[in-house]
Amino acid sequence: MQTLREYINSLVSVKDKEWEVFNKILRSHHYKKGDIINFKDDIWTDAMYINSGIIRSYIINSEGRDFTRQLYFNTSESHIGNLFVIDLTSFITQVSSYRGFEVLEESEVVIFSRKDLYALYDTSKKWERIGRHLNEQAYLDMDRYYYSLLTKTTKERYLYLTKTMAGLIEKVPQYHIASLLGVTPVTLSRIKKEIANTEKK
């Protein structure tokens, strides 16, 4: 597991006194399995860093169907797309979100408000630079996600999930995994059987 301070230090070195200033705007929160963090049409005024657990974001279409958009978790192989539980568009622009967020496994998060973060930007060039790095990383992760969606097979994307979510993926209902991959649960089951048969050879 990577702490928030460790992650930020991987972007820009933060001294103890600088961290103390940021730490004052942080608060911890515990979510139970099944909790809804934010609903569709809510406006994001807080950002969350996931310390433990699994959270998903989802989209509901005009027919009422539920599609998993992203999974959030913190393992040694996590990247920013998994660490920050947030609708970045809503957070930046203060428009209604088109996504909901649901807790799949008991989770611990660290929360900081948009108001406090932007106030910190105004008083510190370093924190403003860190914010820029975070936004750039979020864009790069989104770009890689869509590239993978368009160029890799479902099997390749599933194998990537099993690698980055080692020890966690089996805790996620498989219909959520299938939805994330853009296939039916039947197709996902077939892919898993193919992989299992290949590993036996």
Give the SSE layout.
Blueprint: H1 4-11, H2 16-23, E1 27-31, E2 36-38, E3 46-60, E4 66-72, H3 80-83, E5 84-85, H4 88-93, E6 100-113, H5 114-123, H6 125-151, H7 154-164, H8 174-181, H9 185-200
Antiparallel strand pairs: 1-6, 2-6, 3-4, 3-5, 3-6
Quick recap of the structure?
With 201 residues, the chain is an alpha+beta fold.
| CATH architecture tag of the largest domain | Sandwich
| Number of self-contained structural domains | 2
String of helices and strands: HHEEEEHEHEHHHHH
CATH topology of the largest domain: Jelly Rolls
Alpha-beta content class:
alpha+beta
Distance between the termini: 34 Å
CATH class label of the largest domain: Mainly Beta
Mean pLDDT: 90
Keywords for this entry:
201 residues; Jelly Rolls; globular; 2 domains; 9 helices; alpha+beta
Describe this structure in words.
- By secondary structure, the protein is of the alpha+beta class.
- It has helices at 4-11, 16-23, 80-83, 88-93, 114-123, 125-151, 154-164, 174-181, 185-200; strands at residues 27-31, 36-38, 46-60, 66-72, 84-85, 100-113.
- Strands 1, 2, 3, 4, 5 and 6 form a six-stranded antiparallel beta sheet that branches.
- α5 crosses α6 (125-151).
- The mean pLDDT is 90.
